[in-house]
Amino acid sequence: MKGISLLAQFAGQKVGLVICGGNIDSRLLSTLILRGLMRDGRITRLVFEIDDTPGQLANISRIIGEAGANVIEVIHQRMMQSVSLKKAELEIVIEARDQRHVDTITALLRDAGLAVRAAQDL
Question: Which value, to the nearest 10 degrees, does the dihedral of the CA atoms of residues 47, 53, 58, 64 take?
Fold first, then answer.
């Protein structure tokens, strides 16, 4: 087939091109998926200002779990935040069904007397 161009070689034939993404970096793919879940409201970050007393994190986790969401990350700050003494800043990343589910969860947390801000409120 020397000297015949690819175009001429396949002229008049049906040709398909397979695009599979097999060479995409797995970390890039993971970031892409997570960002999509965040855009859809399925993953969101909740920020709390809580009393720095035993049981606060357990209570918040219980409310989130009973509402059917999953806690996937927790950052509990006592020293490196702008809240007053005897307070702590708590960031919790949750996985929920959708944005409406997140709204329900934040309402339950507020009803329990917790000061919470969701990612869209930040």
Answer: -30
Alpha-carbon gap, residue 120 to 99, rounded angstroms: 10
- The answer to whether 105 touches 44, Cβ cutoff 8 Å, is no
Cα–Cα distance, 98 to 40 (Å, whole number): 7
**Whole-structure pTM value:** 0.73
Query: What is the SS3 assignment for 119?
Result: helix
Residue 77 backbone dihedrals phi, psi, to 5 degrees: -105, 130
Output the CA–CA distances (angstroms, integers) from residue 30 to 26, 67, 86, 99, in the order listed. Answer: 6, 26, 38, 21
CA-nearest of 75, 42, 72 to 57 is 75
Q: Can you give the pLDDT at residue 112?
A: 97
d(CA 68, CA 84): 32
pLDDT (tens digit per residue) in 11-28:
889 888 888 777 788 898
Enumerate the β-bridge partners of residue 74: 92
Tokens standing for residue 32: 């892409």
Report the alpha-carbon distance of residue 19 to residue 116 in Å, rounded: 44
